[in-house]
Amino acid sequence: MKTIADIDGKIRDGSAVVYTASEFKCLIREGENVTAADVDVVTTGTCGVMSGTAAVLSVLVAGPGEFERAERVWLNGVPCMPGPCPNERLGVVDLIVSGTASAGAGYGGGHLFRDIVEGRRIEVVVEAADRSIDAEVTIDDLVYARVFTTRTACRNYTAYVNRLPTRIKTIFSIEGLQGRFREASVSGCGEINPLQNDPLGLAIGAGTPVLLNGSIGIVTGEGTRSIPERPNLTAIADMAGMEPRYMGGFRTSAGPECVTSLGVAVPVLDDRQVAALRVLDEEIPLPVADITTRAILGEATYADIWQQPDQDVVYHPEWCEECSVCVAATVCPTGAFSRETGIDRDRCLGCTACFFACPNDAFMTGEGSLRVGTRRVPITLRQSGRRLAEDLCRDLRDMILDSRFTFTGGGRW
Ligand code: SF4
Ligand code: SF4
Question: Given its phi and psi angles, is residue 362 left (phi above 0), alpha (psi -120 to 50 degrees) or beta?
Fold first, then answer.
């Protein structure tokens, strides 16, 4: 049996054998008999809509004594919660900002977090007891800026369909989930999800170093509603160092949502961990539930989402009929598509909404479907981005191979 110190030693001297989760699954599918002697680290990851994301910010907005304490604060119109520290007469406001807080017009906390990380100018409005203060800041003006999660990397998601004839507004749909059984909405990165690869909790827990939105951070423990059968994590990291492509806003029919990503390196100490890492999409259950009652109506697997051919969404401008209103651009929940510039891969989550919205089939992708009773219901919305999660796994693998990420030398953490 290896120890964490053994693996860190190999990382530091450049001899560690590191695979991404996808590379490791390829070995398993090819029938390789992998043991703990063959591999030291497997990098896992997930990226998608994660409502349980927030930020703690400390913002300098005025000189000392200019106001007593902030009563209400908005950043780019997103309502923030001042405090808990009142910072009396310091001109500084400490804020907690929810990733799902809404400024209206489809803009919310997730959009704000990405704008901050991209270095954009952020409009600040502070209401104090007797005055209002306007300011503009960038990430360089933020004394403290960290993202924390209250529930991340859920191991078990549920797919949703609508049994009723009317559309249902929900965070699991961009324009309301159509009934009866017209479409299904899915989440989760399946076999590369960190907790899916560590079901016994041998490797991941409080203190585990991670990449949160691409920035080195740490797991702080279990998240809300986490139970052994349906675990999730809390994590925290500095916004400085985050990669905009791994985060952002996502518009839904029930308000703005937040895209978050988590990359976790799993140290392979013994063959129990290898056994856990062998899990494949086709073995991971995905219950299908009614969006209103949450009653389970069917059972699929993650292979129905992620083992379909040609999952990438590809735009063919030569097939575009230049409609007066481009519904593909209108429906895109991340602002990744315009017919003039095509798909911005750094914003695209691969959700497939443009593919289903375009009346002239200017997009191609591999469509999946879920079995519900005797029906096959098409998957019209993927709220997790497996391509981005795989990119994150590769980034983490490369950081380990370059000795920039170890298990015990987690930088400032
Ligand atoms: S909806 Fe489709 S065909 Fe129409 S403008 Fe947009 S991309 Fe082109
Ligand atoms: S798949 Fe299409 S609709 Fe979805 S994020 Fe990408 S460009 Fe936008």
Answer: alpha
Question: How long a stretch of residues is the chain?
Answer: 413
Report the run of H or E that residue 12 belongs to, with start and end. helix 4-13
CA 345 / ligand 1 centre spacing (Å): 18
Which ligand is closest in space to the CA of residue 327?
A: 1
Distances (CA, A) of 111 to 54, 90, 116, 245: 12, 28, 9, 12
Q: What is the C-alpha end-to-end distance of the chain, expressed in Å?
A: 27
Ligand 2: residue whose CA is nearest its atom 2: 354
Q: What is the largest CA-CA distance in the chain?
A: 71
Count of H-run helices and E-run strands, the chain:
8, 26
Amino acid, res. 74: W
pLDDT digits (tens, 9 = 90+) for 173-221: 999 999 999 999 999 999 999 999 999 999 999 999 999 999 999 999 9
Give me the torsion for CA of 230, 231, 236, 237, rounded to 10°. -90
DSSP state of 214: T
CA 330–ligand 1 middle distance (angstroms): 10
Residue (of 323, 318, 349, 326) closest to 336 by Cα position: 349
Distance CA 82, CA 116 (A): 18
pLDDT in tens, 314-367: 999 999 999 999 999 999 999 999 999 999 999 999 999 999 999 999 999 988
Report the candidate in 65, 84, 74 with the shortest Cα–Cα distance to residue 126: 74
Tell me which residues have their CB closer than 6 angstroms to ligand 1.
320-323, 326-328, 339, 358, 360, 362
Buried b / exposed e along 53-68 (16+ C-beta atoms within 10 A)? bbbebebbbbeeeebe
Query: Which of 78, 52, 111 is closest to 251 using CA atoms?
Result: 111
Q: Whose CA is nearest to atom 3 of ligand 1?
A: 320
Q: Whose CA is nearest to atom 5 of ligand 2?
A: 348
d(CA 162, CA 294): 10
Whether the CB of 357 sits within 6 Å of ligand 2: no
**What does the pLDDT look like over 69-78, one tens digit per residue?**
999 999 999 9
Chain CA centroid to CA 309, Å: 23
